[in-house]
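Hey everyone, long-time lurker, first post.

I ran two proteins through the pipeline my lab uses and got sequence/structure pairs for each. Pasting them in order. The first:
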Amino acid sequence: MTKMHSKIDPEFVGAHFPALNKDWVFCDNAGGSQIVKGAVDKISEFLLEKNVQIGGSYAVSQAAAAALMEGRKAAQTLVNAARPEEIVFGPSTTALMQTLAGAMRSQLSPGDEIIVTLADHESNIGPWDRLREFGIVIKFWPFDHETYDLRLEDLEPLMTDRTRLVCVTHVSNILGHINPIAEFARFIHEKGARICVDAVAYAPHRAIDVQAWDVDYYVFSLYKCYGPHTAIMYGKYDLLGELDGMYHYFYGKDKVPGKLEPGNPNYELAYSTVGVVDYLVALGESVGGGGSRRDRICAAYDAITVQEDALTGRLLDWLNARNDCRVIGKTTNDGSARVPTIAFKFDGQNSGEVARKMDDYGIAIRFGDFHARRLVENLDEAGDDGVIRVSMVHYNTLEQVDRLCGALGEIVGSNAAA
């Protein structure tokens, strides 16, 4: 039996991410991660060797169709779907959520209810909120302002026999805390509703298991998970079959998932999913993981968690040691329940000015509301250009965190708590 070890080899990781050879420190990964070389190779392979439309009888068209299916199967393995047809490709999470909302509309009647949260990115609020036009009732599941948690006791009084869907984030791209999605799904299903999860801020950091969690729809952007600018939506096969088609009229309800991919998916970007998954498999092997490809992906994410816990702890320790800084969200990482996406503000400082000054240090961070505007406004943090956000992934290092903290200290001054 292969012995597991938790430490990631930075040289192994660096060899797969050519962009890391630059002088820049990338701490804006929640906006978009660097792309793994294997994904770029798959894009090039498709465009240079099989760049034709699928559905033809000739060999190159058959090869293109096989490549698209390989992309679906890779995504199936990544999220642990039951079958590749449960994978829908689209240009972004925002676009896929809009597709899902449009495809679900005929199932909904005036007076039916959809519950969303203030903690979500607008991608998982706006498409549902626009259904008010058709008489759909939109309710907001509030979060606890002291703990920053979404609590089932706050959801329960909102749910009625007219509740059809609850939309929630797996991890807020501001708060960084992992929500107990399996627990949410179980509760929501017991109430007779379905669950739609925005997983954009979760997918780069932890293994996904849609079957174990029993989620109905699960959506994330591959360009924030080491791939190119495309996105993936998982849906239970029977539920995808019930949705209206968004393609031509002759794409019937049984044509899953094609009916939800109008104009067809971007073939080469879908195929690049193979490169992302190949990298995660190889990373799992590098830390001693064995077994199936899925097992090795899980081993990779176990090691990623260890690396990212160290990054999170180092930055939180520095921020918490100051008396002029406020972390937005939980200030500790108890039980590895936080990802290294950390938002904060300095007293009397404009977040935009601080972030822009970091450019001179070759460190990429960001400021604003990150399209989670309702959350930032609800927290009364929209002033002074919103919040500063540092978002790291496993290819970041402790040395980079120290460099970042040193730069922040020079910009805002040393003001440690007494």
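...and the second, right after it:
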Amino acid sequence: MERHDMGTRRIPDTTIRRLPAYLRALTLAGHDRVTSEVLGQLAGYTPEQVRKDLAYFGAFGTRGVGYDALSLTKEIRHILQLDLGVRAVVIGAGRLGTALVRHTDESSRDVAIAAVVDINPAVIGRQLDHLTVEPLDRLEELVRERDIGMGIIAVPPQGAQAVLDRLVNVGVRAILSFAPKALVVTDPTVFVQQIDLTLEMQALSYFVGTSQRSGSS
């Protein structure tokens, strides 16, 4: 899948996904100027990949000198729209949803959890850090009231598609789903990122087996 900037250039999603890594690398570098070699090393990519990704958005560096770290940080934050103050709603206040709210509050200045909703009467009304868990029935109302642009789905698989549909219908265009189920969205303006932790661990188990087989040969 590809995205378009304000002009006509097509920007691969993989490039967009690497930008936060460059943003973190700029913080870790701790210098006024930083080269693509340093950025690549800290972010885990080659210098060529760094230069190619950044070139989609303009000429930010000087050959042989590198990038002004503060300026590049501001540019990447602007590209990712982090300078606008992104607000998200977490759907599901179980263990995973609770952990996501607390982790985001502690680690992120860029994406703020503005609401948490659940269908379980036992958790509705519970205080979760600075938020009160609201009933799922208020989802659309909360999205509009609090100018929420991102949805985070942390519900059982049987309810995930219905939640996604409601988010799309109310205008949310960026959705992160932790539900262990493939979700369907037909609107090309909506981007859904699905993370199935069980599938990730099962895939990683291959490399455990490879290591064991190598050691026994």
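Reply from user beta_strand_b:
Welcome! Quick read of the second one: The domain at 2-79 is CATH 1.10.10.10 (Arc Repressor Mutant, subunit A). The radius of gyration is 20 Å.
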